[in-house]
Amino acid sequence: MSDIAAELAKLHTLKGADYSRQVERIALMGNFHPVEGETGIFSTGSESEDDYSNLLNAARKAVTHGYKVYILPNPSKTQSPDFIFERKGVYRIYELKTIQGSSSASNRLTDSTSQSNHVLLNMTTRYNGGLLAVQIRNYFEQNAHALEVLIFKGKVSLSIKRNFAFRKDFVRKFRKEYGK
User: Fold this and answer.
1) 88 CB contacts (<8 Å, ≥6 apart)?
2) pLDDT (tens digit, 9 = 90+) per residue, 48-91?
3) pTM (2 decimals)?
4) HEC profile for 134-153?
5) Alpha-carbon span 60 to 160, nearest angstrom
6) Comparing C-alpha atoms, which of 104, 161, 113 is closest to residue 137?
7) Counting CB atoms within 10 angstroms of each CB, which of 56, 86, 155, 173 has the fewest?
8) Are 65 and 157 in contact (CB under 8 A)?
9) pLDDT digit string, tens, across residues 25-51
């Protein structure tokens, strides 16, 4: 089996279709095993990491939204994202940010800028929708490479793409969807 840390490090040098192919290659390289007692969740043995319970909770939510989830290891020499999500043959990498405080999303989004262009916000607390919308827009303004903020809030999944965040009616529409 190939060294997954080396394969993850290659992601920092790739773009476009080459990046997408590399993400799929990592997911399919054979390093992952099913997580015991779970369906659709695979790991490489990262069960001993400090944030594994947060990763597993978010992975469970992702499975309920139709994703197959690959929990990535955290190699010490390279910054790497937390997950590969696969749905309908499309593989994407996500960095997990669990939101537990009432105003922590902005800092958590900023923390993710060097790890992935797709961020997953797992909301575990009540959060003001208008404030979150502004923080998401600011995140896209500060990070030219950011493509998506995926939000899990209860049983709801919201995908905020970059172009939507810059629309004039974004805050209003986001608050309406987030408030459901």
Assistant:
1) none
2) 677 889 999 999 999 999 999 999 987 765 677 899 999 999 99
3) 0.91
4) HHHHHHHHHCCCCCEEEEEE
5) 20
6) 161
7) 155
8) yes
9) 999 998 999 999 999 999 987 676 778
Nearest to 27 by CA among 68, 75, 74, 59: 68
Helix and strand counts by DSSP (H, E) for the chain: 7, 8
Which three-class secondary structure state does DSSP give residue 156? strand
Sequence-distant (≥ 6) Cβ neighbours of residue 166 within 8 angstroms = 137, 140
**In this structure, what token pair is assigned to residue 130?**
């208008």
Q: Which amino acid is at 136?
A: I
Question: What is the rounded distance in angstroms from the CA atom of residue 88 to the CA atom of residue 102?
Answer: 34
